[in-house]
Amino acid sequence: MTPARDPAVSIARGLGIILVVLGHCFDPFSWYPIYSYHMALFFLLAGYVFNPRHREDPKRYVLARAKRLLAPYFLYNLLFAGLTALAAATLGLWTDLAPFSLRALVYEPLTTGHQFPLFNGGWFLVTLFFVQLAYLPLPRFLRGDGPARELAATGLLALVCVLVGKGFDLSLLGTQLGKVGFGLFFYACGRRARAWNGLSGLVSARGVTASVVSAVLLSCLGAKTIYNLSTMSFSGNPLLVFFTSLSGSLLVFWLARQLAATSRPASLLVVLGDNTVPIMCLHLIFFFLLNCLLIPLTGTDPAMLDNTLFGVSAPRLYPLYVATGLFGPIAAVRLARAAVSALDSRHKTASR
């Protein structure tokens, strides 16, 4: 079985996208904060399924990745430009934005990816594309494809990016370069983990227990790290960023392997894992729609609609937000595909 078809990888993606959606509405895991590892997990999983043969035909690989990541991103970007303009005209929200400007449609998506309030979650797709692009020629720059040299070089680069992010207010372009440098290390970790003989011993109950206990002890000592990779904002010890990222990813991957041995819970997670792109791009608009429903019912200030991460009574209702953020996008995409298929069938019938 190839890594790309390994059910544990799909399940890990499913668990990861749950963490993304959960992190945007309410984080119940204060002892192991979601924002201390969840984006590193996705870089690691992407590297885990990387096939070195792609380097034999880099042009084909880049085009395939652009079709998989950039094409849907920019289509969603155009959709949210229209939605932002509609919200500004009808609801008076985000009137300071210029949704159809060249900056919003081209420049910002290639940097921070924060051009539209309801589309902030999609930035990862562009960053992942650049990480995969940067990884292709890496052996040429390092004059070899050895794991030690690769991990040392990318780890040093990631540390520099974290330190720069901690010490400076980065420009839009600098933020994107920092995210790519950070993600490249975890992408390399994923790729090397697949061929590492010690992975099975690490992804075990003993390895995960040691990792989690260490993280909890550090948390009890006040050494908690929650970083926001989308803006290159880091707090606390820079080395702890790497520990929490790797230990959290290890915990998710171990859990995914356990679930891969079962059928019922794993099947749902595989569906989520196979729909990470639409969920990542669309879950905030479903939060917004839920807020539009709940705000009048609860007498909450309507001005809170300006905050797309706002959740009405988040500690109590976060399961509702998570379910809406996960399954709303899947339903929307399936309905859109069904509508396109129906129109196509009608067109073929009419042309006969």
TrEMBL record:
Keyword rRNA processing attached: no
Keyword Transmembrane on entry: yes
Domain of life: Bacteria
InterPro entries: Acyl_transf_3_dom, Nod_factor_acetyltransferase
Domain Acyltransferase: 9-331
GO molecular function ontology, one term from the record: acyltransferase activity, transferring groups other than amino-acyl groups
Protein name: Acyltransferase 3 domain-containing protein
Native source species: Solidesulfovibrio carbinolicus
Lineage, uppermost ranks: Bacteria, Pseudomonadati, Thermodesulfobacteriota, Desulfovibrionia, Desulfovibrionales
